[in-house]
């Protein structure tokens, strides 16, 4: 099992630390879909009992990253074209409203940070960085919305599809399209045009959905 582990026997919240480590490994693709997550092996890696591991796996299942299978236990969840379609349709409803609320509140410093993220995304040649930079770009703009619950829900949705989006960007040569769409969204935000930013965000999400579903074979 490819998983970065460390001794957390004295940690205050072993469950949270195991959850975060497994979540990141799944998002990054270090743990492949269908891979069996053995509680004993994970507990030994972190030098803890099975109880916080079991609690972390339950939390991961609630986030859609892990599923429990008969006779196998916890495995890394796979994503079907139908699930991808539903998640992206949900994002296309929610994210335009978030950025619409954010645009009037964006400061020059926030716009500069978003531009730096956009530049870093465009210049990155390591596929492992693309997902993080993409999320950072959008989150930097959305932060001004002051909608923390919306952001929490969106982060959960992105966790579910992130590893597939990384693969899709690599295999479909989607970086050029994503970068072009990021630039357009950023320009609308800088111009204070909330409606254009919202519509461009909606199209951006739906374009990514269509490309991902083709990648998944839907």
Can you describe what's shown?
- There is one protein chain.
- With 218 residues, this protein is mainly alpha-helical.
- It folds into two domains: 14-76, Arc Repressor Mutant, subunit A, CATH 1.10.10; 81-216, GntR ligand-binding domain-like (Four Helix Bundle (Hemerythrin (Met), subunit A)), CATH 1.20.120.
- Helices cover 70% and strands 4% of the residues.
- It has a two-stranded antiparallel ribbon with strand order 1-2.
- A hairpin with a 3-residue loop joins β1 and β2 (73-76).
- α4 crosses α7, α4 (81-102) runs antiparallel to α9 and α8 runs antiparallel to α9 (194-216).
- The longest helix has 24 residues, at 148-171.
- It is globular and about 55 Å long.
- It starts with 13 loop residues before the first helix and ends with a helix.
- The model has no long low-confidence stretch (mean pLDDT 89).
* CATH secondary-structure class of the largest domain: Mainly Alpha
Terminus-to-terminus distance: 29 Å
Indicate the CATH topology of the largest domain: Four Helix Bundle (Hemerythrin (Met), subunit A)
How many E-type strands?
2
Main β sheet profile: 2 strands, antiparallel
Secondary structural class: mainly alpha
Could you state the CATH homologous superfamily of the largest domain? GntR ligand-binding domain-like
Radius of gyration: 18 Å
């Amino acid at each position: 099992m490819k998983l970065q582990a460390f001794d957390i026997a004295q940690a205050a919240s072993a469950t949270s630390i195991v959850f975060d480590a497994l979540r990141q490994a799944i998002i990054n693709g270090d743990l492949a879909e269908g891979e069996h997550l053995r509680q004993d092996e994970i507990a030994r890696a972190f030098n803890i009992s099975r109880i916080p591991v079991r609690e972390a796996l339950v939390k991961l299942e609630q986030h859609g990253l892990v599923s429990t299978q008969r006779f196998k236990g916890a495995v890394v969840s796979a994503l079907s074209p139908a699930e991808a379609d539903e998640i992206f349709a949900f994002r296309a409803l929610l994210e335009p409203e978030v950025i619409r609320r954010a645009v009037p509140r964006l400061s020059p410093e926030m716009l500069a940070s978003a531009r730096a993220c956009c530049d870093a995304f465009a210049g990155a040649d390591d596929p492992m960085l693309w997902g993080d930079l993409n999320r950072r770009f959008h989150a930097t703009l959305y932060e001004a919305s002051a909608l923390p619950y919306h952001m929490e829900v969106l982060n959960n949705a992105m966790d579910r599809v992130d590893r597939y989006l990384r693969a899709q960007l690599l295999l479909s040569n989607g970086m050029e399209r994503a970068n072009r769409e990021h630039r357009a969204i950023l320009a609308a935000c800088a111009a204070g045009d909330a409606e254009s930013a919202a519509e461009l965000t909606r199209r951006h999400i739906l374009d990514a959905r269509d490309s991902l579903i083709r990648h998944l074979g839907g």
